[in-house]
Structure formats: C-alpha cells, structure tokens
Protein 1
Amino acid sequence: MLKGKTIVVTGAASGIGERTAELLAERGAEVISVDIHQPPRPVGRVVTADLSDKASIDRLVEALPAGLHGLANIAGLPPTRPAQAVVAVNLVGLKYLTTRLVPKLADGASIVNLASLAGLGWADPAAKAAIDASAELDFGDVAAFCAKYGIEGARSYFFSKEALIVWTMRNRWTWRARGIRMNAVSPGPVQTPILKDFLETLGARAEEDMRTMDRPGRPQDIAPVVAFLLSDDSAWIRGTNVPVDGGMYSNVLCQMHGF
Ligand code: NAI
C-alpha cells in the first residue's frame, strides 16, 4: 500500500510524528524525518529544520528530492508556548512548507495536516475574521496579526488549528489537476509529551473531558489514520477533517445540537 512511496514526516522526533514515521516505514515507505530536534530513534533519512523559520524551510525544501508521494505535517507546539511561536509553527510554517513543496510532489501525492479537536470552533462566526485574515499571513507579520486579533495565550493553539482546518478545506481542489489532495486529522487528547501542556492550559474543562473519555488516545491510535490518508486507498477523500478522538467530537456535536 505504501511500498515505493517517499513520504516526508514533520515532527518525527516525538509523539504522533515519531509513531507515524515508524509505521510508514513498517508498511514499506521511504521516510524522510523532519524535526527541529534529532529523533531519538531515527527513521529513514533525517533532515533537521526549524519550521518557524522561513530560511530554514527554504533550506529544507532545497534538500528534499523531487517526486515525493506524501507530506505529513505533524510538527506542532502546544498552547503553553508563546502565542506567536504557536501560530508560526502550527500554521504559517506548515502552510509555507506545503506550498513550497508542491512543485516537488509527484502527481497523485497526498498531504495530511495534524489539526486537533481544539479546532472544532472553526465555523464559529466569531473566529471568521481572523481566519480570513490569516490566509496571506507571513512570518514577519505574526506579531502584528496576533495583536490585532487578540490571539494571545492558549487562544493561539485553538486559532492555529481552526485556521488549519479551514485552509485544508479551502484547498480541496487547488492541486486537483495533478491529483494532489490534502486532508486533516483531528485527534482528541493523546498521551504524548505535550498532553500535560493541554491539561495545564485547559484546566477544569480538560479534566471534565478526560472524565468523559474512556482513555486518552495514544500515538498508535492516530498514526494508522494518517497512513490511510497517505495511501491510495483514500484517493477520493479530499479537503476533509477526520476526527480521531474516541467519540469526543460526536459528543460535542450532540450536546451542541440537543441530540
Ligand atoms: P510532541 O511534542 O510529542 O511532538 C511534536 C514535535 O514537533 C516534536 O518532535 C517537536 O520537536 C516538533 N516541533 C516543534 N516545533 C518545531 C519546529 N519549529 N520545527 C520543527 N519541528 C518542531 O507532540 P504530539 O502530541 O506528537 O503532537 C503532534 C501534532 O499533533 C501537533 O501538531 C499537535 O498539535 C497535534 N495534536 C496533539 C494532541 C495531543 O493531545 N498530543 C491532540 C491533538 C492534536
């Protein structure tokens, strides 16, 4: 299924990205692992890059081969980090890497973005102005953008994921002529080094969520879904957001709509 495919995985040094890189390699893909840190158990070729830095992304794109079959955008910062850094890595850097890399993707390639259950508010009218304004957001403008739209503290994380889900949907057909498609995966709370950051930030709400859930997710719950979206088995899935959260999204929707 993934044999013969060369796939770039960002965030490959930890958590969901690390498990995804391992699984793709187990299933026969050539993996190129990208992270700001050296992976403790490197999978495939490793390229170090800082995805909050335009020049670093340019160097990464130069270093990558042409004819790539997949890009898994998994690197991300949690809500405890400075708002500007969160927006730069989770949104601006991800979008810049993706658009810069498209010319090096093979026809029929698949792009998968790690969003989050935290992005479920993307359709809230209150979020729309900032999401719209982020369409052309560049690295140098992040500080002014965050100030203008009141994106501070943990809001940066929610905003970055809302905007990422919308960007994924908006680009459902951008590269359709070449068969290149893009989808998002939205996990609920997953047991990785950043879970404690979420619990810290969300406080009582996170505790309530954790009580509702039977268990937190594990990287091995998420990686196979990313692998499926990277495979040709999902060829007609385009521009969508797949929740992988033990039922949490359905739970929120039922509560929201009174079912
Ligand atoms: P993690 O902290 O275990 O892994 C994130 C990886 O991204 C790390 O290896 C880190 O070095 C890398 N990274 C961070 N900044 C970078 C930069 N500037 N340049 C290059 N690499 C950078 O986190 P986890 O949990 O595996 O998260 C992966 C993705 O899943 C993130 O996008 C996160 O927002 C998302 N997610 C995580 C959830 C969770 O509960 N753990 C829930 C929903 C979504």
Note: Strands lie at 6-10, 30-35, 45-48, 68-73, 105-114, 181-187, 241-244.
Protein 2
Amino acid sequence: MLVAKELDVKNHESYHNHERVVYFEHEAAGLKAIISVHNTNLGPSLGGCRMYPYETQEQALTDVLRLSRGMTYKSALAGLPLGGGKSVILADPRKDKTQALFEAMGEAVDYMGGSYITAEDVGTAEENMLHIAKHTKYVTGLPKETLQQRVQNPVGGNPSPYTAYGVFCGLKAAVKYRLKKDSVAGLKVGVQGLGSVGYDLCRFLDEQGATLFVSDINDAVLEKAKAEFKNVHIVGLDDIYDLPVDVYAPCALGATVNDMTINRLKCSVIAGAANNQLHQKKHDQILHDKGILYAPDYVINSGGVMCVGYEFFQLTDNPFAYELNEENLKAHVSEIENVTMKIFDYADKHGLPAGEAADRLAEEIFLAPDKMKSVANS
Ligand code: NAD
C-alpha cells in the first residue's frame, strides 16, 4: 500500500516558498520517493523523475527542492503555462528498477491530483514512464508508438533534437550580442560532449560553417564526428578549457565553469546544453567581470521541456490558440533566441550578470503570470 507523508520544509536551507512536498513509501514495491511542487502560478508543475542511490533522505530532499525550483524558472522563460516540480526515487537505477516500483510511483504522481506531471530524467527511461502511466495520466515523455495509439500525428517523443536546436538558437543570440555577428560561419566553437544533444548541436554549427573543437570520453563518437563534419578538430578532455575559441559549449557535465577552469577560458561566449554549468553563483559574476557572455543554461536548454510539454498538452488540453504540431513546436523553440537576447538586454540595463538577469526575468513572469506573454512571447 502507498503511504504518503506531507513534509514541512519551511526551515530547510533549500526552501524557497515551495507549495507542497510529499514523501512516499510503498513497501511491497520497494518505493521510496519524494515529489516536490515548487510553484504552480503558471500551471501544473512539470519536471522529471530522477532515480539515484542517495545516501540519505536528506540528500534526496535537498536535490528535489533545488531541482523543482529550477523547473519553475525554466518553464517561465520557456513561455510555457507550466509550473516547476520534480520527483526523486531513492534507489539505484542499475539494480533496483522493477515494474512494480514504477507502478507505485504512478500512484504517487496521481496522489498529487494533477499538480505535478512527471517525465524521464537522470536514471529513468521511456519504458519506466509507461509503467507510471498505468496509474496516472500526469506523465509525459512516452514512447512514440504509445502516443500514436492515442492521437493522430503525435508531437513530442525524444526531446534531445529540440534541446539541441534551442541551444543553437541561444548560442546564436549570444554570438549576435557579444560578437555582433549574424551567423556562426567562421567562428571557432569548442563543444564538450557529443552525446544526444552535443552531436546535434555540432551538426547545426557545421552546416553553418563553424569550425569545431570537440572532446568526449567516447572515442567512437569522436570518430563519427570526424567523418561527418567538414571542419572538426578533436581535442583532449582537459584541453577544451584552454582553447582560443569564440564559444565554449558545455554539453556533458555540470559545474565545468569553476574555480579551476574559469581563468583558463579564452572564449567570448559560453552557450551549451549542460545543466548547472556554473559551479557556484559567484561564477556568474566572475564571467561578467571577465567579459565572457554566459547564455544561461536553463534558458537555452529548454527545448526539451517545450517538447515534453507539448506532448502532455496534446494528450490533455491545448492551452495555446494554435495547433500542437512539429512546426509550431519548432517555432516555439526558436523563440529561445529572442528570449536570450532579452536577458542580455536586461542584464546590461541593470548591470547584472546574465544568470542573475534570467532569474529576475523568470521571477517577474511566474510571480505575476499575466506578464508571461509580454516577456516570453513578444
Ligand atoms: P548524453 O549522455 O547523451 O551525452 C553526454 C556526452 O558527454 C556523452 O557522449 C559522454 O560520453 C560525454 N562525456 C561524459 N563525460 C565527459 C567529459 N568529461 N568530457 C567530455 N565529454 C564527456 O547526454 P545529453 O542528453 O546529450 O545531455 C547533455 C547535457 O545536457 C546534460 O548535462 C543534460 O543534463 C543536459 N540536458 C539535456 C537535455 C536533453 O533533452 N537531452 C535537456 C536539457 C539539458
């Protein structure tokens, strides 16, 4: 049986006016999970379900509080009528995954009564969402074949191509703003990590004539890039930070802009897909002081949440005045370029680093939802 316990997190160091946080246990299914709803001013909260072998419940709570808060900011600037939420399952994805566990997680998601919509995240996969979907309709990121059974011409599916396209749009905005160039042609771009997002980003850059400097721990993907792209140089894992490039695009790990790397960077722009690129808040200010323009990660990598959001709306209610299809989704993702420009303008006007400017603009939107259209969609 699923047991739910509302958590009082008001005194937690990561508390930030979270609306509701619930701890769940289902002994028979081996489930221990927390769902955190940060803010629903703009709509139901959406955020992935992370599975991770946390050492303590406290660590899991800190993670879910921070991640759910981040989703509120991301969806606000993504122009989505969605709030911020997240869930964590306290278990090891390499050995603890069972159908029963995810079905119990489905019951937990459903218990939130639609205030939280779940999706895939680190440690969970499409097939796990299918098991969650047995007990709730508040789940997105389902396999394309399942969507095809429910709607004609489903939109959504694998979000990575949309994330990559959005990162490219944000990168172009930063190049325009800092280097006064309308194209990436002739620019040198260092891409760290050629996974689902990084590789597609390289393809956009290559098509438009950029020179690529790429690193990855996976040699096979580097060889593939060498064979496919016109102007590509493979660089060492640690050398990526020292390159005299125009743009550094972190697309692998978080926190690569840190005390050890920040003085090595010679780029004018940082624009990549990785989450939490800045190790600490102070690095936002340090980049600003060094004259490196940082395209805030959660803004430019929001193509993925747009994709899963559209999928959910298609299965439930369409909040937009237009049809939910691939073309309109792509147009929505391309808005990342304008939103990123607005953040840079705002940062300059208020003498702020770009990350801080993005947070303030997001707060203006989700704390006063009627402003949403004027900032995100104008
Ligand atoms: P992925 O796992 O497909 O790719 C990551 C790549 O980085 C892999 O090729 C891996 O070999 C490489 N890598 C790992 N360690 C490395 C290192 N030290 N140096 C260089 N390369 C290294 O992941 P992804 O889906 O492409 O996501 C990339 C980043 O973007 C992640 O931080 C992810 O959280 C973030 N992100 C992804 C999406 C999405 O839609 N996939 C959405 C938002 C944010």
Note: Residues 57-77 form the longest helix (21 residues).
Protein 3
Amino acid sequence: MSDLKGRVAIVTGGNGGIGLGMARGLAMAGARVVVAGRNAQKSEAAVKDLTARGADACAMVADVTDPAAVQRLVQSTLDRFGRLDVLVNNAGTNIRKPVHELALEEWHQVLDTNLTSAFLCSKAVYPAFKNAGGGKVINIGSMMSLFGASFAPAYGASKGGIVQLTKSMAVAWARDNIQVNAVLPGWIDTDLTRQAREQVPGLHDNVLRRTPAGRWGEIDDMAGVAVFLAGPGSDFVTGTAIPVDGGYAIQG
Ligand code: NDP
C-alpha cells in the first residue's frame, strides 16, 4: 500500500522544510524525487540529504510562479525519468501584515506563490498523468485554510483557495484516475515559522498551549501522509483536506 518503487515525484519547495520532510518520505518509500526550488545551493543540499538515505533524487531550479519555468520543470522530469506519477504543490511564502497594511504587490506575491503555482503545476502535469492512466496531486494548505489570523490575510486567502482548488481538480480528474488531496499542516518547525516566531509575539508558546500533542511539528512528521497520498492506499481518497497538526484544529 505504501510502496512507491518506480514512481516519480516532483516536490515544489522540496529543498527545505515541509517539502523536504515529504520528499524524504516519498524517497524512503522508493520513489524517485525531483526537488524544485529557486535556490540551487539549497536544492543541492537537499539532494545530498536524500541520496545519503539511499534515494534517487535530483534538483531542478524552477520558480513556480513562472508558467514557462513550470513547463520546463515538468518536461525535464519526463525527459530524465520517462514518467511522472506524483506532484506535491508545497512551495509557499508569507508576508505578515494586517490587511490594511498589505500592498497589492505583496498580495499578488503571496497568492502567486501559494495558489497560482498549484494551478500552474497541476495543469502542467495533467497531460502526463492522463496519458499514464493516473496520478496523484498533493496540495499543501494550512491551519489558515480553516482559521483566520490578523497577520495573514493573503496567506489565509491562498490557503483557503488551495482547499477549494483541490476539490475542483479532484472532481474534474477523478475519471482520469487522478486523485487530488490537500494536507493541512499544523505548526511545523521550518524557516517559514522561525521567521513567524520572530515577527509574531507569543506565537511559540501559544502554539504549544493550543496543540494537544504539546509540541511543534517536525518536518519528518509530514512524511507519512505524503506516502499515503502518493501511493495506492489512497486510490479511493480524493478531494479531502487532511490536518497533520498534533490535534491543533480540533482543540476546543
Ligand atoms: P520553507 O520556507 O522552509 O519552505 C518553502 C519552500 O518553498 C522553500 O523551499 C522555497 O525554496 C520554496 N519556494 C518559495 N517560493 C518559491 C517559488 N516562487 N518557486 C519555487 N519554490 C519556491 O517553509 P515551510 O516548509 O514551512 O512551508 C512549506 C509549505 O507548507 C508552504 O506552502 C507553507 O505555506 C506550508 N505550511 C507551513 C506550515 C509550517 O508550520 N511550517 C504550516 C502550514 C502550511 P526556494 O527558496 O529555493 O525557492
């Protein structure tokens, strides 16, 4: 059920944080993994991390907000590996300001990186998935897909949008045997949230207090759900949004 041998996965933003945690999971389950990001050095370090674990992995430089770069990423993956089975739309960013202070360019930057990129990448992989008789798209949402935060208007809009985009793609592509699901991580220790803890007073302790598991998540906590949603165990699971949050979302 969790054997990914022979499968090929692209993980956007797979060069660090949650993307790397998921890439590790996919690789350990036998998939060949392409980590895609803008920072070539960071991507090479991630490939080293993966190959040290025995994985077949490579890095491709791509800005997922650029439609031409996305097309190149998909074509290069097909050229290199001859197939493509899994897309993880994980690349993301945040600009923490209340809505009345957020500039239009900042709004676009967050929406383009977090939401439009998922549209572009999913659309780009669709022909390969359809021709192969199926595929898996895993979109990364957030607790902000469910809740509001004063400091995350664009981020919250993008992550709410991810859940609805997931449902639309799931319905559209179900007959092509393509499953599309979202993962909603809780608070995971990454570069993104290290920055958040510097910018949002009290965040670290508030997360600890509210998370029933009593801890921040680690990137390796994201591996299992990636393997499940990428593998045959989830062939009848589509359009869902699965929290991986130590219980944060169900705390009363
Ligand atoms: P990181 O900042 O560690 O990782 C973000 C990754 O996205 C980087 O590897 C970065 O690589 C890549 N990226 C950003 N912009 C682009 C772009 N334009 N093109 C290609 N790659 C890009 O953060 P996280 O690991 O925390 O976040 C990963 C995802 O998880 C995001 O979607 C985030 O919103 C989501 N998330 C995170 C949570 C957390 O607690 N950490 C909670 C809920 C959701 P590079 O700089 O090389 O381009």
Note: The longest strand covers residues 178-185.
Protein 4
Amino acid sequence: MKRGRIIILSGPSGSGKTTLHQKLLKDPAFKRKFVKSLSVTTRAPRPGEQDGRDYFFINKKQFLSKQKKGEFLESMKVFDNYYGTPKDKVDQNLDRGKNVLLCIDVQGAAVVGSRYKDAVKIFIKTPSLKDLKARLEQRATEDTDKLKLRLKTAKEELKEAGEYDYVVINDVLNRAYRELARILKAEVLGAVKKRKLNPALSR
Ligand code: ADP
Ligand code: 5GP
C-alpha cells in the first residue's frame, strides 16, 4: 500500500486552520483519504470543545511525562501552553495509506518539515492583520491580553510564510477552500496538473 503524506496547515492563530480542515474532512473528495492528527494540549478546553475530538486535554505533569518518553513527533510551548503531536498515531495512519493533516504552529511545522521531507507545507493567512484581529475578536475565545499575545506572535509567524510550499490567503472562505482543495488534489491525489495552480497564491 502507498504510504500516506503529511499535510501541514500552519499560520497564525485565527487564520482559519480549524475552519478549513473541518471543511476538508467533510468533503467527499477527501474524507476517506485524510485524517486529522489530534494534538495533546495543556490548554483548558473552550466551551464546546471535547476531549478526544478537538484535542486530548491533559495537565502539565502528564504532558511532560509523555514528552520525556518521546511520545511526540514534535511538541512546543505556544502562548503559555504546551501542545504536542502524538507520533504513534501519525505513523500508524501513514502506514495505512492515510494522508495526515497537522494543524500546528510555525515552530512545530519547521520541526515536522525537517523530519518528513515529503510533507506538504501550507501556510494559511488572513488578507491583513486587521482581518486577523477582527476574526479573533469575533471568535471570542481569548481575553484581551491573550488576544494581544496572539496578534503579536502572528507578526513574527507571518515572516515564515516564505518557508512553505504554498500560501493560501483565507479571504472568502469558499474561495480559500477551493484553493486548498486544488493544492491537495494536485500534490496528494495527483488529480490536477500542478502547473494549473495559481502562481500568485502558491509557490
Ligand atoms: P485557527 O484554527 O487558525 O486558529 P479558526 O478556524 O478558529 O482559526 O478561525 C478563526 C475565526 O475566524 C473563527 O471564528 C472562524 O469562524 C472565522 N473564519 C474562518 N475563516 C473565515 C473567513 N474566510 N471569513 C470570515 N471568518 C472566518
Ligand atoms: P489553539 O489554542 O488556538 O487551539 O492553538 C494555538 C496554536 O497552537 C495554534 O497555532 C495551533 O495550530 C497550535 N497547535 C495546536 N496543536 C499543536 C501541536 O500539536 N503542535 C504545535 N507545535 N502547535 C500546535
């Protein structure tokens, strides 16, 4: 069986990684061939988030123990909380021929990209920082200080966009989704010729 590929969706918090990957996992063109890697975090669940569906929520002691045992493909401290990608699950899914989506921060993306050379690295951004701020405010999951930290970090993260295979601007959701789907069809499913991709949005 052909081994699956890792697809990294990265970019600032609020850029739309969750929205886009959830759309992808509902799309009949992808849902049987793609799985999302479920990260482990010490962050508290947001209202509506479920353990084992959105993240595995654990405490810092449990996280550090897993980290010590080498259970993570990568792990990072992001905005005062720890996040990690469980290695076993990713490898099992790749071996089963599934393509594995990782929605992770830019530091984690750099680590995974250096370990899995065939990973497809996609950077998601909003048209402007103003849009990013408006979306984080509208999502209303962080208090003012935490939101400020996410925006400050975003400015640094945006500098890394050039390291990615593709940059998708999440302007109008359906348009951005079509762009993402087209990239994945070309890169992973081999269904569209790569040269047909819009060179302005992808490199
Ligand atoms: P991330 O997972 O990258 O942190 P989210 O997917 O949670 O980002 O998106 C941040 C917020 O922006 C959410 O409230 C989401 O509903 C909203 N959003 C996502 N994409 C768009 C878009 N294209 N236009 C307007 N709002 C969007
Ligand atoms: P949030 O708290 O908004 O769910 O996530 C905060 C940031 O951590 C986002 O940029 C998200 O992509 C990133 N993140 C989530 N899971 C992981 C992970 O396993 N590893 C790394 N490095 N970042 C992660």
Note: The chain has a mean pLDDT of 93.
